[in-house]
């Protein structure tokens, strides 16, 4: 795709976002417009047929269109001009009816929607693949204990299954958002010069309805040339999704640190190497995802800022969308795809997970001790008591269990036989299992309704 | 509220976003937690009663909490400490059970949700008021013609009713988004230290269910301490809404320009004056709304960037939300309220709207002429013909009608009697009326289902 | 360049930002490194010669490098590998010394700096061209009166020369910022794996000094692998510049509105047309510049957010820069170039400028009247008096002069002979001329010191 | 300051950014304007004296000003009105000359500059304190070895001194940027209604020069009401600084992880505790700094986006700055202050730093081995050889040294006596020491020129 494309993008998605696809989107609009106008007896049926069969992007010179677009101010003008010329070669009479009653933005916006439809479909399918991968991790590791970390400090035991379930739970919400988006944002744009469809006389709504049918798009109440919440919502939904992908990648990267070692991205020859360090196995997918999660928020802000459009069609703000929205889709797709691949082969070191729970010499079980004391002492008093024990353990480099065993105040409430099991992670997992079940059930329910998404 | 508060904010909303409301939100959580734990026999019923009745923000010293929060790292720690002390005064035994099994973020996040609930409710009510105002404008001005403008140039005739209907249509979509948000984002946070509810032993899900009932919040599948798509979605939905408010304000400001004069914000003594210019009537509400629309995208980007959280609870990213999300709500609310007020009293100068359609000496009707010629000449040829006439009209300072009347080529297709009506805006409004009807119907349908929002 | 490239970008700049240029940048680094190491007797002189002559981007397959980069995680790794193979074909012995002691990021960052050097030079030259155009406008139009507008309302008379001088003054400041940037941001990156240059033994600083000399780059105190303020400062300086370009474009667009008509972008066949409207002459350059000014702030935010890098080299944050910084340079360059072209041929309608000063029937001279009264009545009283007259003029549709002539209170202070000249814009221009002189002098001074930039 | 203020802000800075300080800034402008106008014989000297002595913010009711500002559209209008009334009580004649010839934005912008002056001064002093702390760390720990980490993986040995020197080096660059900023951004705003100073007749530049003198501010070539690069540059410079603060905090947080343990923020009673976890010592300062570094980029983007202002004074864009720029200053100041405090008491665990270098069983020294082999085998061959050894070591859980010792190919080039020292971190630090010296010298040089900053 280019020097950085294969790293940052998803090869299955890029063709949908290419210049050629953009031209094809506009041509699909022009073809459908002609057919719809023929159905409404606005233009002759023959003309519609000829126009339709000329609407093939490969027959257009993208670079030449680009040069003309730089004079005209948008690419639809040269596309319409080139299409008219192409049609004229076949049938001069048909050429009279090209782009009848429409405006550049009708072609560009509808073309964009036509590009987004398969792109969002591909993203949803990939989100489903990711969800399946995460569901398998959640289920397989429901008893794999590791240290839960808060503020980047070990806090207490949890399971890797629960962590994966948390990732999955968020992905399921993004699938719902994407489903809503696909039903709401993928609508026809057709308004003519100022959004009244005046050039179609009294046939405006009839034609619009027919174009929507031709393209299997919803018909909006009125044109949205200068009301950009629909494309901006595509940006925000993917922006939210990128945040979750970034969160998962951050977790993977933190767990893959040399000193932690609990997770690793899949190995492959040359993968994550270094130009100088022979021992390196860098988490490449995490880097790609984190880069996307760093870049997308600013791009979303651009889409939101560009919503402040003037009058019936904006000057500059609309232009600001043209490269920005496809870039968001592309970066999100790349991150999603590479993350899904990496998680499919995620290496989980259960032994190190368990071993790292010993790093603190028992401090990570402090809350368990506290909650055992609390019914006897009250929560706050128990917290103070255990805090003191932790300080003492830390100062002397002793295991918290030993310190507690030697503490007279503790001894009044807990026997040595009470204390031992408090340091068993498997006994302090609370509702972890039940929570995993809840998420897996939601995942199964979501997967069972493919029709809805 | 402060030097700039009354200008930028909405006085009905600010109390819901105050420090005191934030403390009360945490206290409401603590009270509900205690009651729920009593129901589940985790703590004594008496303790729950005492805790509950101490949970009144007015009994706490916000400034002192702030100082302690700066040491502890979050405000929930001193709130719990102060609450424990307060309860202890009433009933030392009850004090043993304060904040049982919960973590700071449970209190803070649930408290935030409890603040957002009435805030989002107020925003929806105000959006409905705005929708009503816009619906009235759309209906009243369905025959008020004015120049539609694209790229900040007069393009063709439209109606002010259609413009208002376009604004309304977008607002209706934001109401749907807000309705979804209220049903999805307002959920309980309860997970304990690392999200397992381990401190509640095997009563975790039972307690969580009961707390959700107490607070009338939905129970999520699992805690969302480090999964921030829900609060971030509040930001994005309001961000999308702010874009539309900004678009409306931009339109008002453009139409209120001295040389345009078609719209004006309501007059009031001192409103929009100047410290030096005696004649000024500045569009203050537009300024306020445009400022908000300029500020909110960057804040939304912050919320998205902050989604990349570490492990079970993040370091810094979570903190980044604390002031940012309320700021978005506040700025959006201020913009919405001031815009609604201004549009309620919007002055519409129908005479100037009609008069400005004459500014171009007929050029604004060029497409009407072209579409009259097109059936005879083809669309592209008609466009070339009319382009030439426009150039000629511009060069000689003549009315396009006159130029056309003297054009031999045009005369072959259009008689003078054909040409005259092409310059009547009312005859070139296309589907404007039908589109307005469609939006008004959608508005009525939305208003009829208050239960759903 | 592509479908949208010619519209949004500057053809003279794009080759400097291409994939090929990026590869060449890395190769230039590798060649300089080899030569420097030969000078320091770290590697054999023959090896350096062979490496040097292989460092030609055309000999590399960019797409193949891209595919390998997606596995390795960065493009320097395959570049070094391919270079090593290429060198080996010529001289297997020389191939032993390719990339000696350096790390991927050394090649990529220094390569970026080598791309930025001519790019920033081109931008400065184009800024100078813009400054010259603006200086000519400021001088030529120092007596061209028009309405100064505040809050999008006519406020008082000013000159178009002063407006152009204001634009110029800002551009001069950006030239200073760019000059500073070029002297500060264009520094060598060379640190080896963790920034210690350990692989070069005790020759590290000697080699680094020699590489800096080879490439005519400054030598930093230490490597900046994870300290990104230099590249981020490139982003912020261009971000500030984009704000000014956007401000100028906004001004042009507002003055080019149909109802204002004071300015117009140059005409050319097909320029700013429409796919349906035959009379349209859209301000294309303004649209392009406003689009860039809308997009760049979000990209700058990305560069700032990406500064939070981990340890000696970051995971993801560094990656986030790779496409973002070149995009900022490219968008800024496109906007700058197209704006400069448009302003070079800017059409200024002095007659309409003067005529629009009459739109308000004298209200635009209200301050002039007030300041004539103020010495007699005090400023606040004068303001109240004129405010009342303005209200009366507005209500009755009369010229402010008439209203004042009939006002008894005014008559006590000003005779009709006093009042008349107050409505002459040329008499109420204050220090406009002197300010223009000050800016033009600064421009001349800046142009006289080409050596400094 | 409020519930979150003490945590996120710096108490020494907040008074400079308060509402009262904002009012005082405007009053200082009004006082200086009056004195300057008296010097230029524009208004009577007595009037200037009375105005001057009334310009004390404590005499104004900030809340009442806020309410009036919400009607007027900006706070300068009610300030001028209230000041006029106050002066009138003392001397009705003097009241006639309040705010003579100025506009609201003159007062607000100059007032802002007067607030920024001490605020930026305080920030520079605190940056110097931070630089001193870092210089001490760099010097003290120049021989403290630890693992350098890239892509969040151990890469090779470095020193903590070099890490601190890297932090310091960046801070020194920010001090230069801040010094430039203070000399360039702190300029007078005085232009009157449309920037011509017309209300001052032919005394405009004389008065402006005198006001600048009174306030010890630079006099710009012309007013910058709608040219906002100066305030936006304040935002970008602090934005760059925030990136570095965030980078340092990220480093501290990563090194403070439970499994790493090399650094810790200072301990204090209650500091970084938890509402439920008795053993927690959260890095609170790091969280605060990272939050600021997450928030500031979006705010900077707002300042850049707001630069696209209309005509002589903007509608909304200027308003967008009013709360945003002080917020940036405040968040940056809070982060800087809390980070400096934390680093002043930073706990460095040299033993763990050394111990963690053993985590990889020698892999972290792979490059050292490779560079010992490379002169014999060539760099690429050496890399392949060591890569294989690393794989083998990893697979078998053996120390790399052992694997190498048993490798026949390695034995051809390196004897056991050669291999041993390659695993001594102290022998593989390259130019670390020299680099530290370079940065410390730069720090001393910067500190020696207080006059320049």
Descriptive account of the structure:
The structure is a homotetramer of 453-residue chains. The first copy, chain A, has 19 helices and four strands. With 453 residues, the first copy, chain A, is mainly alpha-helical. In chain A, the strands form two sheets. A two-stranded antiparallel ribbon of chain A has the order 1-2. Chain A is elongated, with a radius of gyration of 29 Å. The mean pLDDT of chain A is 95. Chains A and B meet through strand 1, strand 2, helix 8, helix 9 and helix 10 of A and strand 1, strand 2, helix 8, helix 9 and helix 10 of B.
Q: Uncertain runs of chain A with pLDDT below 50, 5 residues or more?
A: none
Give the rounded overall mean pLDDT of chain A: 95
How many β-strands of chain A, per DSSP?
Answer: 4
Order of helices and strands of chain A: HHHHHHHEEHHHEHHEHHHHHHH
Helix/strand/pairing category of chain A:
mainly alpha
Radius of gyration of chain A: 29 Å
Distance between the termini of chain A: 30 Å
Any idea what the shape of chain A is? elongated
Order of strands in the sheet with the most strands of chain A? Answer: 1-2
Beta-strand proportion of chain A: under 5%
Main β sheet profile of chain A: 2 strands, antiparallel
**Percent helix of chain A:** 55-70%
With helices defined by DSSP (H or I, 4 residues minimum), what is the helix count of chain A?
19
Summarize the structure.
With 453 residues, chain A is mostly helical. Chain A has helices spanning 5-8, 19-39, 45-54, 62-72, 76-90, 92-95, 104-140, 160-184, 204-215, 229-255, 284-305, 317-344, 350-356, 366-377, 379-396, 400-405, 408-411, 416-419, 432-448; strands spanning 145-150, 153-159, 263-264, 347-348. Chain A has 19 helices and 4 strands.
């Amino acid at each position: 795709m280019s020097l950085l494309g294969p790293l940052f993008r998803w090869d299955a998605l890029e063709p949908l976002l290419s210049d050629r696809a953009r031209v094809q989107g506009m041509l699909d609009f022009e073809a459908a417009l002609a057919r719809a106008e023929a159905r409404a007896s606005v233009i002759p049926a023959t003309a519609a047929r000829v126009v339709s069969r000329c609407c093939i992007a490969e027959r257009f010179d993208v670079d030449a269109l680009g040069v003309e677009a730089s004079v005209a101010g948008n690419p639809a003008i040269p596309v319409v001009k080139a299409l008219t010329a192409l049609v004229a070669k076949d049938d001069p009479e048909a050429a009279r009816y090209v782009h009848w009653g429409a405006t550049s933005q009708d072609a560009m916006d509808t073309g964009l929607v036509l590009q987004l439809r398969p792109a969002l479909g591909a993203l949803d399918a990939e989100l489903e693949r990711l969800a399946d991968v995460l569901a398998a991790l959640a289920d397989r590791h429901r008893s794999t204990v590791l240290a839960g970390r808060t503020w980047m400090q070990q806090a207490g035991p949890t399971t890797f299954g629960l962590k994966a379930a948390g990732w999955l739970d968020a992905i399921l919400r993004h699938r719902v958002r994407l489903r809503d988006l696909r039903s709401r944002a993928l609508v026809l744009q057709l308004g003519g010069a100022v959004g009244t469809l005046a050039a179609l006389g009294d046939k405006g709504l009839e034609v619009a309805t027919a174009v929507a049918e031709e393209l299997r798009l919803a018909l909006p109440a009125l044109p949205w040339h200068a009301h950009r919440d629909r494309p901006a919502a595509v940006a925000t939904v993917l922006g939210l999704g990128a945040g979750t992908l970034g969160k998962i990648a951050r977790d993977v990267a933190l767990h893959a640190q040399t000193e932690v070692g609990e997770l690793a991205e899949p190995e492959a020859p040359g993968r994550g190497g270094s130009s100088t360090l022979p021992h390196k196995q860098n988490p490449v997918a995490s880097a790609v995802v984190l880069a996307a999660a760093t870049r997308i928020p600013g791009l979303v802000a651009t889409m939101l800022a560009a919503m402040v459009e003037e009058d019936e069609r904006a000057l500059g703000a609309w232009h600001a969308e043209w490269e920005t929205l496809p870039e968001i889709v592309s970066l999100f797709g790349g991150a999603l795809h590479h993350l899904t691949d990496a998680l499919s082969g995620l290496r989980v070191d259960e032994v190190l997970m368990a071993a790292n729970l010993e790093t603190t010499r028992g401090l990570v079980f402090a809350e368990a001790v506290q909650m055992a004391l609390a019914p006897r002492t009250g929560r706050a008093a128990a917290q103070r008591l255990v805090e003191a024990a932790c300080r003492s353990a830390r100062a002397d480099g002793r295991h918290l269990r030993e310190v507690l065993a030697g503490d007279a105040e503790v001894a009044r409430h807990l026997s040595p036989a009470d204390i031992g099991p408090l340091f068993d992670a498997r006994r302090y997992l609370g509702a972890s299992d039940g929570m995993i079940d809840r998420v897996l059930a939601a995942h199964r329910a979501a997967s069972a309704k493919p029709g809805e998404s």
